[in-house]
Amino acid sequence: MIDVLLTILVFFMTITSAQVLKVDKTINLPIAKDAQKKDSSRAEALVNVRWKDKRASFVFDDRVFQQAAAMVDPLKVAKVTGEKKVSGSANPTFRAVIRGDRDVPAMFVAQAMNACAEAGITDISFSAVNKD
Q1: What is the DSSP string of 30-68?
Q2: pLDDT tens per residue across span 110-130
Q3: Each residue of 19-51: pLDDT tens digit?
Q4: What are phi and psi for residue 128, nearest 5 degrees?
Q5: Tens digit of each residue's pLDDT (9 = 90 or more) over 18-27
Q6: Is residue 74 exposed (0-12), middle (13-18) or buried (19+ Cβ within 10 Å)?
Q7: Among 35, 53, 88, 115, which residue has the fewest nearby CB atoms (within 10 Å)?
Q8: Average pLDDT of the chain to the nearest whole number
Q9: Percent of the chain surpassing pLDDT 70
Q10: Which of 102, 60, 99 lies closest to 82, judged by CA?
Q11: pTM for the whole thing?
């Protein structure tokens, strides 16, 4: 019994560490007073939209893209592999989470959304904080 619990503990520690590493600390998330905690039981793709020197860049899977359209193929691969990890077949609960800097113009967030849609991801969420 203890060995099973230890295995589960190591598993969750590994997954949590991997998700923490994907968070880009340079992004100042927008404030939404009604923001809710996300459901972390689903497979997801994390897309960061950075705003630096009045230029947007898109970060997915530790790769920086200057154009959102360049992320389409990597997002398609992530969708297929994420679906198979969760259920072994097509999983309609796969989603993309877009973390856009609070200063980035909406046009660039829309470009990230379009890239997700072109990759076949229909469930898109946005990351925000509920206090500064």
Answers
A1: PB-TT-----TTS-EEEEEEEEETTEEEEEETTEEESSG
A2: 999 999 999 999 899 998 888
A3: 444 567 888 888 888 877 777 667 888 999 999
A4: -150, 165
A5: 444 456 788 8
A6: middle
A7: 53
A8: 82
A9: 81
A10: 60
A11: 0.74
CB neighbour list of residue 124: distance below 8 Å, 6 or more residues apart: 95, 96, 97, 98, 113, 116, 117
Q: Rounded CA gap, 61 and 78, in Å?
A: 9
Report yes or no: 51 and 101 within 8 Å, Cβ to Cβ.
yes
Token couple for 5: 């619990």
Cα dihedral across residues 58, 46, 116, 78: positive or negative: positive
Q: Strand 55-60's sheet: what is its strand order?
A: 63-65, 55-60, 44-52, 95-100, 123-126
Q: Which of 9, 27, 4, 22 is nearest to 99 (CA)?
A: 27
What is the C-alpha to C-alpha distance for residues 101 and 30, in angstroms, rounded to an integer?
7
DSSP-based three-state secondary structure for 129 = strand
- HSE at residue 102, side-chain half, CA atoms within 13 A, is 11
